[in-house]
Write a structure and sequence with these properties.
It is a single chain. This protein is α+β, with helices and mostly antiparallel strands and 136 residues long. The chain has three helices and five strands. The chain has a five-stranded antiparallel β-sheet, covered by helices on one side. A hairpin with a 3-residue loop joins strand 2 and strand 3.
Length: 136
Amino acid sequence: MTTPTSESGGEFRGVFAQRLSSTRRGARLARLLAVQQMRDWGLTDTDAAELVVAELASNAVTHGRVPGRDFEVRLLLAEDHVRVELSDTRAEREPEPNPYPDEHGYGLPLVAALAIAWGVKSRCVGKTVWATVAVG
């Protein structure tokens, strides 16, 4: 088993992964578990990462939900950032920022504003939406 490496080539100092039900309750639990894990890692400035997890988890259960299938939240801790990954099973529904958001659709612009970088990568089944967020 290999240790995951960060974008800068260094190894991640911590990895957290949890599969959850593709429900609103699962999305809420993803945020709560992510916050607790970041606290356990000793991080103090995690508001941006918490919002990114909440938004990506909400998108996973709203737009990436396949009945009977879970989604996964994964956090990878590097020296100065956390990589947040949310994986779901709907490969055909890639996220796109809404250029004209109404009361919905502010999520991805929020993620883009809070993250150093973000993107989508395909998996064998589904996709992973990731974001790199600075933490302290």
